[in-house]
From TrEMBL:
Record's bilayer topology term: Multi-pass membrane protein
PANTHER family cross-referenced by the UniProt entry: LD47995P-RELATED (PTHR42985:SF40), SODIUM-COUPLED MONOCARBOXYLATE TRANSPORTER (PTHR42985)
Listed Pfam families: SSF
InterPro entries, per database record: Na/Glc_symporter_sf, Na/solute_symporter, Sodium:Solute_Symporter_SSF
One GO-annotated biological process of the protein: sodium ion transport
Name of the protein: Uncharacterized protein
Matches recorded under Gene3D superfamilies: Sodium/glucose cotransporter (1.20.1730.10)
A GO-annotated cellular component: plasma membrane
């Protein structure tokens, strides 16, 4: 369905809703900072093990529901089908393995930094290598957890609103599914192709996704701090088991948003039209064209994106502060002072380091705006490239008692070198994986169907159908093929400009789409 007329700018009510959400999040952090201003560093970082299961569960869910997820996963479903939902299957074994094997060890040792385990198991050198590879706002972990709980509510409310209004706009849920099937964006048939060059298959999404999820849940500082913030190991396990359906729910919301968006723009792709210049602008455009008629709702969704970003940033800043204190600053102070430094000094160091990391994050945000959408691929690639090697060190530490510190250190270096070579090579050679979906088109667009007050530059009407597979793709060479692999196996490319390789010719696609639209119009 072609998009109708809409005013693509904020109403005063949108600014009001957006500001209210941000102010509320700030008040929670400020309240926690004032109330716990005399707290020790351990209390700031672990909440003194007095946090409740429900808010910690929600915090776990939204810690990695970043703006990349909200903007990127629906875009992935729009351009490359909803087959990405199979990655949700990988959550089950990853979280069960974490509960059974990893969590009891971390909880019994009462660690503040996940990388303290590497020193206990191997030596301090391996610990520092893990900390550097990984490298709270002022209220500490309590503020982070309760703010995350609020942001989870905002994210769910805004995404449900967008899905509901978008579904109504296209004529109901049956219309959404019919459009998804016509465009091959939804099917119950699983792709069992073992070829790692195919973008999404059962094997790459489930097996590769399991390793990716396990690195998140079992070897990640942000997750560990939440496990240690509840009162007992049983409650920590309950937290992660409750987190499983919550994370599946968030994934389902993102995929449904992508399917509704595909039905809304079927036959009138805004990227081909030139209404947007990047694939990751799809969701913001969809929000403004469907929700701008209801003042306040676009502001709620923008608050949703900011909430997702804030939850991720607050978790990361708090975790970085913990690693900085426990792995770098505290050992130096203990060596110089010939004893344990005061709790007051460690609390100040924790707050100051969190503040510095927050300022660094702001600077990187401005840098991302200058660089463009490529920064999303770079950031997610870095996460994938370092997550696997770190997980490997923890796995051999737990399950391979014969491995010594030299083996762990050399293995970590070699793993990092290999993953960095593949990941950076994929970025530099601009490789794209194979897709077999019908190309997008603009056959249903009308010249008179303009959108006023468009804030994106370069608005132009295009009425040709073409496959995006030839856009910005370098010719394959024996070396470049080494870098072309499934996005889940090497990196998660959410929100990137997609490519398609159509099974049918452009002429056949034109004829088929024209006949279908004549039937439905």
């Amino acid at each position: 369905m072609a998009a109708g007329k809409a005013l693509l700018h904020f109403h005063w009510a949108d600014y009001l809703v957006f500001s209210a959400v941000l102010v509320t999040s700030g008040v929670i952090g400020l309240y926690a900072a004032v109330r716990h201003r005399r707290a020790t560093a351990r209390q700031l970082l672990t909440g003194n093990k007095k946090l409740h299961v429900l808010p910690v569960t929600l915090s776990l869910a939204v810690s990695f529901i970043s703006a990349v997820t909200i903007l990127g996963v629906p875009t992935e479903a729009y351009f490359n089908s909803a087959e990405y939902w199979l990655v949700g299957i990988s959550y089950v074994p990853a979280q069960l393995l974490t509960c059974l094997f990893f969590m009891p060890v971390f909880y019994s040792l009462e660690l503040t930094s996940a990388y303290q385990y590497l020193e206990v198991r191997f030596n301090r050198t391996v610990r520092l290598m893990g900390s550097v590879t990984f490298t709270v706002e002022m209220g500490g972990i309590k503020a982070v957890v309760w703010t995350d709980a609020l942001q989870a509510v905002v994210i769910v409310a805004s995404m449900l609103t967008l899905i509901t209004q978008g579904t109504v706009s296209v004529g109901g849920w049956p219309a959404v599914m019919q459009a998804a099937r016509r465009g091959a964006r939804f099917t119950w048939e699983l792709d069992l192709d073992p070829d790692p060059f195919v973008r999404h298959t059962l094997w790459t999404l489930v097996v590769g996704g399991c390793l990716m999820s396990l690195s998140l849940y079992a070897a990640n500082q942000a997750m560990l701090q939440r496990y240690l913030s509840v009162q007992s190991l049983a409650k920590a396990r309950l937290t992660i088991l409750l987190h499983l359906p919550v994370s599946e729910f968030f994934l389902a919301l993102s995929m449904l948003t992508g399917l509704v968006m595909f039905a809304y723009y079927e036959g009138c792709d805004p990227l081909l039209q030139g209404k947007i210049s990047k694939a990751d602008q799809m969701v913001p455009l969809f929000v403004m064209q469907t929700l701008s008629f209801f003042p306040g709702l676009p502001g709620l969704f923008v608050a949703c994106v900011y909430s997702a970003a804030l939850s991720t940033v607050s978790s990361g800043v708090n975790s970085l502060a913990a690693v900085t204190l426990e792995d770098f600053v505290k050992p130096v102070l203990e060596k110089r002072q010939q004893g344990r430094p005061s709790e007051r000094l460690m609390s100040i160091i924790t707050v100051v380091s969190a503040l510095l990391y927050g300022l660094l994050t702001i600077g990187l945000a401005y840098l991302a705006g200058v660089v463009g959408s490529t920064i999303l691929q770079i950031v997610l690639s870095i996460f994938g490239m370092v997550g696997g090697p770190l997980l490997g060190v923890f796995v051999v530490g737990l399950f391979c008692p014969c491995v010594n510190s030299w083996g762990a250190g050399v293995g970590l270096v070699c793993s990092l070198a290999t993953s960095l070579w593949v990941g950076i090579g994929a970025i530099l050679t601009r490789q794209r994986t194979v897709s077999s979906l019908p190309p997008l088109n603009t056959l249903a667009c009308h010249v008179a169907d303009n959108v006023t007050n468009v804030t994106w530059s370069g608005l132009r009407e295009l009425t040709t159908v073409y496959s995006v597979a030839t856009d910005n793709v370098t010719s394959a060479t024996p070396l470049s093929l080494r870098f072309r692999t499934s996005v889940v196996l090497v990196q998660q490319e959410a929100g990137l400009r997609p490519t398609h390789r159509s099974k049918c010719s452009a002429k056949e696609t034109n004829q088929t789409m024209t006949e279908e639209m004549d039937t439905h119009m």
